[in-house]
Design goal:
The complex is a heterodimer. Chain A is mostly helical. Chain A is 68% helix and 0% strand. The chains are: A mainly alpha, B mainly alpha.
């Protein structure tokens, strides 16, 4: 059990990696026990748990979740159940739990990614760490250049802009270079 | 990306944060404005890719968290043995060729690409004089002139050549101090990769192999391909 759940949620919204670690260790035992009873032997429950924790974390960051119903724990379990349902019945839509229905939910189905997007993913991963971070903060986190300056300590907004466009150019060149 | 101006809108759309009204307006624009449509799909593609890349990164992070410590130790043991072996091999290697030899092999004078001397024209100021001397191989004189120019006007590109002049006249420590102070991420600075390369060579000359490797690996992953082949072969010689 987490002592200060409101604080944990606040830190999850901010994308704090330590909060991710805290979430991960807080509910691991309960989650594994619950799901082990409900699924066939041999299924990798720990893997399911990790994926669920990540989905919760990413949704806190992207959707700035403010749970209207339930706790982080019920939300995490609902995500786990959905993932499980999706795994065994891929053609049907996810089971919608109350706690999920009341919230926006985002997750990319990797199996549905087109070849071009797979290539983009590969090249993105090969960018330098700073470039990845620069693109991530802007396009994914949606931070303004001003906020990025404050977060990263780069000189000013113009520096951020031109650095980012260099990174984007690098990514595009890499894709064309690999014979798309 | 043309999406630059529309990032906030596009992000809201991808995440399903638009109101019904906004969604309607958005769909209408997608239908009619080809450029808008194209940049939206480009954005969406990148957004999803970054999301998946982050997911993979977090997964590794969690896997590390869940690995019991004795397991970690089990992995560490061979790593420690490898490091010891490499250290041993390195000491042996030093007796044979030594970093000095490697430094000589890989070092070359960086060309003057800023103000190549034009035949016949006289240098107009101390900076031109410095580049002229640099071109002619009078590195000590060039170093003094670069320094003089920089007293009045700080500039990273000029500082880079100041460091190069010092390096070529054997003033390693001075060159190192300057190179280490140059910005790594300033897009206006034209010689970031070069700076990193020469720093790696200086560390090599100073017999600091770990720092050399660190600098080379960083250049390899974050650089723009400058000296890519040399980096690879030098790294393999250091291993």
């Amino acid at each position: 059990m987490v002592k200060n759940e409101a604080l944990l949620q606040e830190r999850l919204r901010e994308g704090d990696k330590k909060a991710l670690g805290q979430l991960y260790s807080a509910y691991k035992a309960a989650f594994l026990a619950y799901f082990r009873e409900r699924v066939a032997v041999g299924m990798d429950i720990e893997d399911l748990y990790q994926d669920s924790v990540i989905a919760v974390y990413q949704n806190y960051v992207l959707n700035q979740l403010q749970l209207k119903k339930g706790s982080v724990k019920t939300y995490l379990f609902a995500v786990g159940k959905n993932k499980l349902a999706a795994k065994f019945n891929a053609s049907k839509p996810y089971v919608k739990d109350d706690v999920l229905l009341s919230q926006p939910y985002f997750e990319v189905d990797e199996d549905q990614m087109a070849m071009e997007q797979q290539l983009l993913l590969k090249e993105f991963k090969q960018l330098g760490e700073k470039c990845r971070e620069m693109l991530r903060l802007h396009y994914y986190r949606g931070l303004t250049d001003k906020e990025i300056v404050a977060k990263t300590g780069y000189k000013d907004e113009n520096t951020i802009k031109s650095y980012r466009s260099r990174c984007l150019k690098k990514l595009k060149e890499a894709i064309h270079g690999s014979g798309k | 990306m043309e999406a630059e101006n529309n990032v906030i809108l596009f992000r809201k759309k991808v995440l399903g944060h638009l109101s019904d009204e906004e969604t309607q307006a958005f769909e209408q624009r997608i239908e009619t404005d080809k450029e808008f449509r194209k940049s939206y799909f480009e954005y969406k593609e990148l957004f999803e890719v970054i999301s998946v890349a982050e997911k993979h990164e977090l997964k590794n992070h969690l896997k590390n968290l869940s690995e019991p410590s004795f397991k970690k130790f089990r992995y560490r043991l061979p790593i420690a043995a490898t490091i010891l072996f490499l250290l041993g091999a390195f000491w042996l290697y030093r007796f044979n060729s030594g970093p000095d030899g490697l430094y000589e092999t890989y070092f070359d004078t960086y060309p003057n690409v800023i103000a190549p001397a034009t035949r016949g024209s006289e240098p107009q100021n101390v900076l031109e004089e410095a580049y002229r001397n640099y071109d002619s191989g009078n590195f000590e004189a060039a170093a003094l002139e670069f320094e003089k120019h920089l007293e009045n006007q700080a500039n990273s590109d000029v500082s880079f050549y100041h460091a190069m002049a010092l390096l070529n006249s054997g003033q390693l420590d001075e060159a190192k101090t300057i190179l280490e102070s140059l910005p790594k991420d300033d897009p206006d600075f034209a010689f970031a990769d070069e700076t990193q390369w020469y720093l790696a060579l200086i560390y090599l000359k100073l017999e600091n192999t770990e720092q050399t490797k660190g600098a080379l690996l960083q250049l390899e992953t974050e650089g723009n391909g400058f000296k890519a082949d040399e980096i690879k072969s030098l790294l393999s010689e250091l291993d």
